[in-house]
Design brief:
Length: 97
């Protein structure tokens, strides 16, 4: 199956509820690469790369997140995988890809 990339923005109560750590753990469990970061406006931004079905499963997970999160919206853009990531990591808010 082909590799794809999903660039997502998750809105709601998604900061201070272990969303980034839970996202990293779930992405690694699925064997995806990329990153996740908090945004200054309270959203979480993430990039997932891997097999299409696994990336879509991860995007589906983002619609609910960890138990303390309350997701109100997920904006997703699918692209061709860049294949430049080696692992899945948590990035500081100021880091860009």
């Amino acid at each position: 199956m082909a590799s794809i990339q999903a660039h997502v923005y998750v809105s709601g109560r998604v900061q201070g509820v272990f969303f980034r750590a839970s996202t990293r753990d779930e992405a690694r469990r699925l064997g995806l690469t990329g990153w996740v970061s908090n945004l200054p406006d309270g959203r979480v931004e993430a990039v997932f790369e891997g097999e299409e079905d696994l990336v879509k499963e991860m995007v589906g997970w983002c619609h609910h997140g960890p138990s303390y999160a309350s997701v109100s919206d997920v904006k997703t853009e699918f692209n061709k995988a860049s294949e430049k990531f080696r692992d899945f990591e948590i990035r500081c808010s100021h880091q860009r890809w």
